[in-house]
Backbone:
């Protein structure tokens, strides 16, 4: 059994544990996951929840004891970005933000032009809770899918902007919230 320091020892709560910070075994576990999900919602009670699967190793990092970040790539919509811009529960650092190079350096295995990188999503993780997961089946990791990389690696700033501009819910989400700034900020590379 792994032992945790007194500072990181979780406190018990019904259905799971609460942690003061992301470090040690918890950090290692989080950063090793090849897939994760984001779930966001607008402040409006009649808004829609967005649950989005994310993948690729090295795509999600722990920046510090309370802050996590992931790379946001070109895809179907920009719902998570729209929700964060509206509710302030996270921050989107776009490619033209002077702060962009600093968090980008934390993703050494992902080049800024691969996959149509649009932004970096940064979230303060508090409170930190887990659940037992006793009913979750054991799964085996087979391989990375390269479809997204192959699709967007051949794009440049102009073609990514054209692609994003054609999508119905990229600049403005279905509930009217602001999504991505269009035209897209230029690539940092």
Residues:
């Amino acid at each position: 059994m792994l032992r945790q320091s007194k500072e990181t020892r979780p406190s018990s709560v019904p259905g799971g544990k609460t942690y003061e910070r992301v470090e040690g075994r918890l950090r290692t576990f989080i950063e090793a996951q090849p897939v994760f999900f984001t779930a966001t919602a607008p402040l409006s009670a009649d808004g829609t929840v967005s649950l989005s699967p994310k993948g690729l190793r090295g795509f999600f990092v722990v920046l510090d004891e309370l802050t996590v970040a992931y790379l946001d790539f070109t895809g179907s919509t920009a719902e998570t970005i729209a929700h964060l811009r509206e509710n302030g529960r996270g921050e989107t650092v776009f490619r033209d933000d002077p702060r962009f190079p600093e968090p980008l350096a934390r993703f050494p295995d992902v080049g800024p032009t691969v996959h149509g990188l649009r932004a970096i999503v940064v979230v303060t993780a508090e409170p930190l809770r887990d659940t037992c997961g006793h009913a979750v089946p054991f799964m085996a990791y087979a391989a990375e899918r390269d479809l997204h990389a192959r699709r967007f690696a051949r794009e440049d700033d102009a073609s990514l902007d054209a692609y994003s501009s054609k999508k119905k819910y990229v600049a403005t989400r279905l509930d009217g919230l602001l999504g991505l700034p269009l035209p897209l900020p230029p690539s940092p590379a």
